[in-house]
Amino acid sequence: MARWLKRICLSLLPLMVAATALHAQAGIGQRDQERIQAEKKKTDAKEVKKEEKRLYKKHLSNQDKATRKRMKRNKRRADRQGNSGHREPFFRRLFGTRH
Question: Which of 5, 25, 63, 98 is least surrounded by Cβ atoms within 10 Å, i.e. has the fewest?
Fold first, then answer.
């Protein structure tokens, strides 16, 4: 009886080890998962930017020529100022109304 038990255990042991080794390889690795998430984030950002550009062009096409010129002029002025925004002229700041 002990001989049969040894044979059964010795024959099943490699199968159990192989099954656990195969099970460990079944999932996706953390590095691959991070890479996939980074690519997805990049493509999502690209799609959002593309959609914003499309909406802006549609908005521009709805305006008449004078409005488009005014928008373009104001955009250039804003780009020149940077994040600080528009600053009132000196005399308006000096003699303007105080709140």
Answer: 98
Kindly tell me if the per-residue pLDDT of 9 is higher than 70: no
71: how many CB neighbours lie within 10 A of its CB? 13
Contact 90, 81 (CB under 8 A): no
Classify residue 92 as exposed, middle or buried by CB count within 10 Å of its CB (0-12, 13-18, 19+).
exposed
Say which residue the tokens 């080890």 belong to: 17
Q: Tell me how far CA of residue 33 lies from CA of 29, 47, 79, in angstroms.
A: 6, 21, 39
- pTM exceeds 0.85, yes or no: no
| Lookup result for tokens 């953390």 | 30
| Encoded tokens for 8 | 């059964």
Do 96 and 88 touch, CB atoms closer than 8 A? yes
Query: Which residue matches tokens 């909406």?
Result: 55
- Please report, for residues 42, 46, 52, 60, the alpha-carbon distance to residue 67 in angstroms, rounded to integers and kept in the order given: 34, 29, 20, 9
